[in-house]
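ASSEMBLY PREDICTION REQUEST
Request ID: AP-0331
Submitted by: J.K., bench scientist
Number of chains: two
Total residues: 296
Priority: normal
Notes: Please return the full assembly, not individual chains.
Input sequences:
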Amino acid sequence: MQIDWQNFSPLSAISGGAVIGLAASLCALLLGRVAGVSGILAGLAPPRRGDLVWRLAFVAGLFAAPAAFALAHPLQQPEFRAGAATLILAGGLVGFGSRLGSGCTSGHGVCGLSRLSLRSAAATATFMATGLLTVFFIRHILR
Amino acid sequence: MKMQKGHLLPAFALGLLFGLGLCLSGMTQPLKVQGFLDVAGLWDPSLAFVMGGAVGVGLIGFRLARKPAARSMLGEPFRFPAESGVDAPLLIGSAIFGVGWGLSGVCPGPAIVNLGLFNEKALIFVAAMLVGMGLEKLFALAMHLRATAEEDR
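STATUS: Completed
Returned structure:
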């Protein structure tokens, strides 16, 4: 195993993570909700009375974040190695899988692990494993 | 505390804070996420630090959110998912999710944040993700109908 020292950024990673954990904690303490992005998105359709505004507002906050962040610090456009066709396939799998599995990196990985949920631990271990295998496959077998 | 209709402002602030954390963490960069998943190549351990920071703070926050308080600070009931045990849909769904995550380096939170940068590829990803979510709803409905049909037989 070789460490990518050039891109390794422990300080911004751990402080960014702490901010994510703070947001998830406040979401629980204030709204009584788990801050799982796939679940918040999926709950928009069909819209239910009294359950729509907070979801839309949370998503709008995520959407506004890069503009707010850029006020303090320059933010690069994301760089994708995947082409459009791969992104369509990947997006479909992420959408389908996160709903079937009741959560994604935020709901299971951050909130679920913080709640010491066995289900979320199993989910996180599973998507980490298939994510690792997928990257191994596309970077070291396919190319 | 008086209940505010729909919690528009707090929810927006929470989404904003969550998104700022994602921006700072580097997880909105697909190549950085894939760099973490690429243990056989040049490995970037940063994502483990993101998880460590998030869960470290989250452990405290969710501990505070546990009973005896019957309601959240804004007067909502706590609606956390029940611990219903590890089942096949959880594992199969998570496995499928991981494949898409590895292929793209994108998960739902960073996808929405990147949409805020008006990035074309992020838009493609989010559109496909919403279609995937819709298909899962249809799939769940079909399974439910089949199960009830079998019960009726």
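REVIEWER COMMENTS: Helices of chain A lie at 10-31, 37-42, 53-72, 84-100, 105-114, 118-141.
SIGN-OFF: pending second reviewer
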